[in-house]
Amino acid sequence: MAAPSPAPIPPAPKRRRAGRPRLMRISRWLHLASTIVTILLVVALAGAVLSATGLRVAAPSGAGEVPTLGNNVVELTINLNLSNGGFLAISGFQVAAITWTGSGLVVGHYASPAATLSPHTQTTVAVGIAVDVGPGSPGQALLTQDTSLSAEGWVNFTLGYLIPLSFGFSPGGSGGLAPWNAPFGNYAVTYAAGSPGTVTVSFDNGLSIPIAGTMVTTLYDAGGSSCGSGSLPVDAGAGHPFEGSATAALSPGTCVPATAVSTLSGPGYSFTLPEVTVG
Amino acid sequence: MSAGPLPAGRPEGLLAPADARPRPLPLLSRLALGVLVFLGLYLALVTLPTFAIQALGSNNLPISLSTQNIVLFGTLLALLGAAAYIARPMRIYGPLAMAVDLVEIGYLLVLYASSPFHVSFGGTGGSGGIVIQIGFTLIVLVLIGATLLTLAGDAVTTVEDLQHPGERLWWSYPIR
Known about the structure:
The structure holds two protein chains of two kinds.
Chain A: H1 22-52, E1 55-58, E2 66-70, E3 73-84, E4 90-100, E5 106-111, E6 115-117, E7 121-132, E8 147-159, E9 163-169, E10 177-180, E11 185-192, E12 197-204, E13 211-220, E14 226-236, E15 241-248, E16 259-266, E17 269-272, E18 276-277
Antiparallel strand pairs in A: 1-3, 2-3, 3-7, 4-5, 4-6, 4-8, 5-7, 8-9, 8-10, 11-12, 12-15, 13-14, 13-16, 16-17, 16-18
Chain B: H1 27-58, H2 67-86, H3 93-113, E1 117-121, E2 130-134, H4 137-163, H5 169-172
Antiparallel strand pairs in B: 1-2
Helix pairs in contact in B: 1-2, 2-3, 3-4
């Protein structure tokens, strides 16, 4: 009978771990998910900031405020060149601006529609602040009075769909004030009696563009009744004074002109100037 | 629930030598490392942010964020984080980790309420200066979501410690 073979040596105990229990697996997955979300957020943030370094906003060299005229509206326009050299789109790009007088009256505002600036594209945004100078509006006095306007603008956009940014700026010098040169500065109306009488209008064009058209000046007596009117052609060069005269046939009777209201009609624009005392 | 150490109950199906036991760091070592954890967290959550805000403020770049909140929440987070580290082999670990998550969520909510940050350059009060607003509500919301996931994970850990005391230690402190 053969000798019994020695008992087999048991294998070395395995030192590996069994699968984690269910609750520990769930806990681990939740922590892992949290870590992944945080890492993705950090990567997205870093990408957004990196992409934003390619954004350029600049006014074209030599371009300043360019006024354009409308019906009882003066629009100050600044063109902004935008260039997105980044690899992420700039979304919700919007420019807004507001301007007000020293007494706090808001006379103009602007808000561009929101736009998306695709990667590696450039565009120009015309920021136009429309100043309402119509009859009865707070801005009507700006037609004839030089003053200083406060202005504030905002550029809003969202970086990488994650970080909304808003840049607020106040153009102008000290006090955030920008000079306003009235298009009809030192506006005056005089009347010389005669048969017919002569009405003379003078003003200084403070704008950087010429003003041309036909001005109708209506004269009123102290009771507010119209005495008559005169019409004269106007051609005031940019930054130049203007003076012109026209005959004015007054109503029969004893109408003594006390005040005058002038209306200028030009190519694509018209203005009603504030009432002025006749000199 | 007691805060004492978890009995290292051997999980079913764990293939390991019969005399193997998880060996957490001794309490004194954990205390020493806990102090380091506290100092590291305090540096990251309180010292550096307040220094950065003060440095920006002294360079005329004030940021609209209260340093009081940073000190309060940062100190709380550093204390609780260190306590959770020390208590890792104990039953109290799960609740402590949840407390860290809850304070973190509170901190994030305060940040959410203070969004956007305002940084001013140049003049003041609209006098020829530039003001930058940086909104971060979406970022904070994502971080709150991530912290809620962590909170849920720590809640599950708490339940695990209640149902199977000590089982966690075999993975938290693997046998050697």
